[in-house]
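In line with agreed milestones, the collection of sequences with tokenised folds has grown. One record among many is set out beneath this paragraph:
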Amino acid sequence: MTSLNNPKKSKRLPRQLTLSFFGFSLSFLNKISIKKLTLIGFTFVAMPLVMALIFGANKASELAQKSTSAIYNVAQLTQLNSKLDETIAKLERSASQFVVLKDDELLAIFSGHHKALIDIIQETSAKQQDKVLKEQLTSLKAESDRIKELMLNENIDTFSLEEIQQEFKPLQLINEQLEKRSTFVVNQQVLDIQQTTEEISDNILERLYIIPITLLIAGVFIILITKPLKRLTDEIQLLEQGSFEQEINLHGPAEVREIADALENMRQRLHALELQKSSFIRHISHELKTPLAAIREGTELIYDNSVGPLNEDQQEICDIIRVSVNRLQRLIEDLLDFNIVLDSTSLHGLEKISLSELINDACNVRKLDIKSKNLTMKCNNSPYFVYSNSKQLSVILDNILSNAIKYSPVNGDITITYSSSKECITINIIDQGPGIDPSLSEKVFDAFYQGKAPINSQIKGSGLGLTIVKELLLRLNGKIEVIPARKISAANESGACITITLPNTQTDNEL
């Protein structure tokens, strides 16, 4: 059966043609370099423009030739009319003088004027293309020959002045007709030039369709060149964000494939290094936590006088051991958080998260620290949902809140607010501490950097908190900024405001 009798086969044909076209395009791109593709694109874009330029130049040359020819004809006809008038007038004058004076010398002068008239007629007739004008010149020549025969006739002596002047009337009439025809020919050539000019103008305007065709061709080649480069950029951004699992296999020009192969080799090496780092941190953290738990438990037993009372010096030593153990515990936790940054597998799986609940959970984790400084938490409890990774956001909020508690004064306030727009969601965490000098607003994100510790602070940091936050936000396509609290809230004369910005990808918020 033919495709006309088989609807399924008929519907499948356009799809097969489309796949064949894209297959041909892909095969073509894989066999050509960007340099050659650019050259081909330039050729295809320039070709219509060159053709239009050649067409315009030909039409302009044609118009110039017609204009030159017309100007020459106008000048020739103008000179013809002037010469004919002058020569005919001389011819008539010499004939009239001969009739009156009967002088043979005057007859010779007449013959000379007649010869000049014949030369003018023959020269003009040879150059003219107008048939009517040629016929009139022939008539003028015939009439001038008739008058010459009359002047050479023996009976010319019997002619009076009035009679000879009457014989010149037909010659003058033909000359007048010649002048009218010359004017008509000149006007006709002017109209012809005007019509040609209008036709050339219309043709040039019609050729303007070349512009959108050229732009379309340029757009196609721009897409062919930039699309593989855009895919390369996307792959590089994925590597920058720490996504090393997806294989890089791009099709396109030779240069793009070479870069893709280099990126694939780099991805494999980075992925292997990432796994090694993650494995090392996990193992070292586990190995440290096991003996640390025993040390911490033993320290607590001694501190609680479970094995007997301690004197003042022993109590002081026990306090030092206890604080150091807690600090070491915090360092191990920071290492585990930092491992989240290194482990790209923890960055997948977006989920719907209640922002208010996430903030409350972060505050509950730091409840003892908040209570120890008698801090007041002012949180925005409006229902708001964001699509992100809860584990990452928890680490981000915990580290920032830990810093805010650490630098807040006793009986101070910590304010947490959030707002949204079509593009992003902004979270502000504001404390009443000493603030951060603007010159250090970028340095605080460096690994292991620690600012001046607050007086009597019980919370010791590792210098990795804000580094972890910045790295995680980078992978979430977010950003973090440190600004003075007074720019956000007029009630805070001091303190710092940590502003977190995340892309707004949620779809069903209730805020």
